[in-house]
Amino acid sequence: MLREMKYAIATIGLLAATTLQANDNQLELQSNPEYWATQLGNYQGNRYSQLDQINRDNIGDLRAMWQFSTGVLRGHEGGPLYVGDGRLYIHTPFPNKVFALDLEEQGRILWTYEPDQDPRVIPVMCCDTVNRGLAYADGRLFLGLANNTLVALDAESGELLWEASNGDHTKGETNTMSPLVVHDKVIMGISGGEFGIRGHMTAYNAETGEMAWRGYSNGPDKDVLIDPQKTLMMGKPIGEADLGVSTWPEGEWKRGGGAPWGWVTYDPELDLIYYGSGNPGSWNPQQRTVDGEPADNKWAITVFARDPNNGQVKWVYQKVPFDEWDYDGVNENQLIDVEINGEQRKGLAIIDRTGFGFLLDRETGELLVAEKFAPETNWASHYDMETGRPVVNEEFSTFRQGVNVNTTDICPTAMGAKNMQPSAYSPETGLIYAGINRICMNYEPYETEYVAGQPYVGATLTMMPAPVQEGDQEGRMGSFIAWDPVEGEVVWKTDERFAVWSGALATAGGLAFYGTLEGHVKAVNIDTGEELWSFKTPSGIIGNINTFQHQGKQYLGVLSGVGGWAGIGLAAGLEDPEEGLGAVSAFAALKDYTELGGVLTVFALPDA
Amino acid sequence: MTPTRMSRRVFPAIAMIIGVAVSVMVMFAAPPGAAQENGQGQGRPGDYIAIDGKVDQGTYDGYIAYTRACLACHGPDGLGSSFAPSLIKRVQQRTFSEFSNVVAAGLQIQPDMVMPSFADDDYVLRNIENIYSYMKGRAAGDIGRGRPRVIDEAQGQEPAQRREEDASAKN
């Protein structure tokens, strides 16, 4: 397998020996099940580990070996990296510290990196000062700082090797995502969808920090790096030029959002990177119409497949044309090989913001499956498989209902039926495991004005738990599900009091792991969802559970530290539509369960 | 006619000063005596009109301004979040002067718990008084969660007119 991949890379040709290195190194590390070398575990974004020392039989014995306080209070997303050198590399939210911790000495600090950043970046971060973590290749660590500086550090010493500027916080651009190293390039998106930015994905030279290419999410084809004769949409060339301009009212594409701030995945054989772009500009759909009618606002909420070498777009699939709900389309694209209708397909699966689970062909971008994984989903009845477009339910169309009209009981909420928390995929079961949100909303657009560097939102919303269905836990706001991406159905689910905002992990030990907003790390039977073990960390978990093996011992590492949009929206409890003025919310308030504070907890089985 | 509050019209001039020198905010600690003697809904910072959950235009603007500029940290409807306090609770203990002082100057007691300065943000400065009114209404239990409606003509005329008279008397 590894040889095949190397071959695939070599065929790209024209790459100098040094440029091959980073990718080579990253692929090699990924192929070693003892390592956790990239935030999603592998390029395909599967968050699956072949390790099985910790398994269903002994999970009850799993215990915390040591804990480490990061000294930072805000929401801790992402997780630790392990690349076989006996250390854990972790990062924090703003001020974006990086620590190298000695795994053999219970987390003794080998070095610390702490950048000096202008705190004025904080107010332009929409949803807490989170950061989804480090990337590693070839002795270097890469981190996107909140203030848009992309840094490369020497993993050995923590010394700064280079820095590159990826955006401008005075325009509302910030960084929260984890970069991905592909070949000799560090690939990096941008945040700021609530500030009317113009989204972009950029590649930097891993050795020098020099910009190699930038592809925008909206605007003319030459900026998006689309060739309308070649770039595919639903399996056929787009044809029409500059849709990224013509599907907007005059000039609105310049503040058209489409911020790609989620995860990037990569197929080494096809040599394509995949990611989703965020919501279009203002949340008031009226301000994005052309001649008063809905317009597609391309290429917001779109899955992009790009050539990592030059950024050229191979295909696009717009999940939500003319967004009316802030269904920010950044969720990770899991690359999985599937059998569908007796045929082997290179698939791409998404547990999407919209409540729909998608399956696409990752070579062509054709839509294969679109089914609801969150049963309350009501904004669209279904997807038209011919056109690839959602069939929107008029009753929940915030555009049809109008500006300054409160459209009520839309499911899911703008937080999405799943947010940034990455899902896991087990090649053994063929299922995807994901923490999801069971929350609905009322959404009321209002006319808003664009001012550079200020929020460009244009809708107010209130949220409430999704209506309870038979067998659901009363008032639950989240679930952990096993999803069949081919059949398009939930195989099992377990409910949680709060939205499940942590990344999932699947292992060959027959286990799936996730964290809760109250702070529990949980292990469940991967076949049934039955809870087998849990441990309460000091704060709510919005980070990801990673696993690795060092000197024959399998470990689990997770950052706890509540925050993010979950910390903002759920702290005080959701609204009860029935409740009277000034009444205390009937629904659970996160602030009754957890407080701030970043801690890394490392688990293992006790010595025999 | 949509009810408006006169004081909002005089405020922007003062707001401009906040940006220049925060100490000027002391002015609000001792507002003009005449205004002080008036009762509820008389156009002092923190006044609002709420009838059956509906509010005057200024207080409604306060809700929108809060949602745009403050919600991301202080949580929905002023209720607080995991990293910034509930403003509903705090306005009960803070004078308008203290409140607007913090908004203009910012506050940072703990290293990463930043309350940013809005001194450069005209929109927020123009609306500080409205935000304060909205929070006061929330604190008193007169305004519920979510986006309030603006008092419509038939219902709103009475108190709105009274307010305008008083406010103009103040000038």
Automatic annotation (TrEMBL), chain A:
Species: Modicisalibacter ilicicola DSM 19980
Binding residue positions for pyrroloquinoline quinone: E77, R132, T176
Pfam families for the chain: PQQ (PF01011)
Sequence similarity: Belongs to the bacterial PQQ dehydrogenase family.
UniProt entry tagged with the keyword Calcium: yes
Alphabetized UniProt keyword annotations: Calcium, Disulfide bond, Metal-binding, Oxidoreductase, PQQ, Signal
Active-site residues, Swiss-Prot/TrEMBL: D326 (proton acceptor)
Domain Pyrrolo-quinoline quinone repeat: residue ranges: 36-381, 502-555
Protein name as it appears in the record: PQQ-dependent dehydrogenase, methanol/ethanol family
InterPro entries the record matches: PQQ_b-propeller_rpt (IPR018391), PQQ_MeOH/EtOH_DH (IPR017512), PQQ_rpt_dom (IPR002372), Quinoprotein_ADH-like_sf (IPR011047)
Matches recorded under PANTHER family: QUINOPROTEIN ALCOHOL DEHYDROGENASE (CYTOCHROME C), QUINOPROTEIN GLUCOSE DEHYDROGENASE
Binding site for Ca(2+): E194, N279, D326
GO molecular function: calcium ion binding; oxidoreductase activity, acting on CH-OH group of donors
Cofactor(s) required, per the database record: Ca(2+); pyrroloquinoline quinone
Cleavable signal peptide: 1-22
Cofactor note: Binds 1 Ca(2+) ion per subunit. Binds 1 PQQ group per subunit.
Disulfide bonds: C126-C127
GO (cellular component) term, any one: membrane
Calcium keyword on record: yes
UniProtKB/TrEMBL annotation, chain B:
Residues in Cytochrome c domain copies: 57-139
Keyword check for Metal-binding: yes
InterPro entries, alphabetized: Cyt_c-like_dom, Cyt_c-like_dom_sf
Biased composition (Basic and acidic residues): 160-171
Keyword Metal-binding applies: yes
Positions of transmembrane segments: none
Region ranges (Disordered): 145-171
Name by which UniProt lists this protein: Cytochrome C oxidase, cbb3-type, subunit III
GO molecular function terms noted in the UniProt entry: electron transfer activity; heme binding; metal ion binding
Organism: Modicisalibacter ilicicola DSM 19980
Record keywords: Heme, Iron, Metal-binding
